Amino acid sequence: MKWTINQLNQLARKGLMIDETVDVKDLMELDKSIRNISPVQVTGRADLSSSTKASFHITITGSMILPCSRTLVDVKFPFEIKTTENFLLRETSDYDLESDVDIHQARGEVIDLLPLIKENILLEIPMQIFCDDSNSEDGAPQSGQDWEVITEDDKKNKIDPRLAGLAKFFEDE
To answer: How far is CA 63 from CA 39, 96, 105, 124, 161, in A?
Structure first.
């Protein structure tokens, strides 16, 4: 996912179409909550509006395995990220890089999209994710000494043991 500025200038008339599969397994070292991640598919195009600016319109699709927030079982989390990344190919006074956060300065003569792809994937990780089957045997225990996980239905039908004596108060004799 690297191009030199010279390559981009040569492709300016033809246009650059992107369709690559990228391995991002090293994200598992950066974020320990990622248990596994499939190779991601990056598709899109690059627009070279002038010799000073390149815009990459890309879609990143893949899936990762994350732990369930409730039971810690593996949950498959598919993602599709649509983003536009803008690069300045050479320094110019037309853009203020500090105030315009959506524009990146090319480092040397090479533009590398891989760090931005990884950053977008890390930003896509949800704060909480839940598995569909809450009664899974693989996850955390659902009960223990003096405690148990209850659902909303259980909560409605269960009488608090501390108040069980009061239930007898209203019984007819």
So the answer is: 8, 36, 30, 11, 45
d(CA 163, CA 144): 22
User: How far is Cα 50 from Cα 117, in angstroms, rounded to an integer?
Assistant: 24
Would you place residue 139 in the very low, low, confident or very high pLDDT band (cuts 50, 70, 90)?
A: low
pTM for the model? 0.71
Residue-wise pLDDT for 102-124, tens only, equals 777 777 788 889 999 999 999 99
Residues paired with residue 144 on neighbouring β-strands, in sequence order: 147
Please report the beta strands in 30-124, taking only residues with DSSP state E, as ranges in sequence order.
36-37, 40-48, 53-67, 74-88, 103-105, 110-112
Q: Are strands 103-105 and 74-88 parallel, antiparallel or unpaired?
A: parallel
In three-state secondary structure terms, 93 is coil
How far apart are the C-alpha atoms of 159 and 149, rounded to whole Å? 15
User: Could you tell me if 16 and 8 are in contact, meaning their C-beta atoms sit under 8 angstroms apart?
Assistant: yes
Q: Which residues are CB-contacts of 111 (< 8 A; sequence separation ≥ 6)?
A: 2, 3, 4, 5, 8, 54, 87, 89
Q: How far apart are CA 9 and CA 77, in angstroms?
A: 38
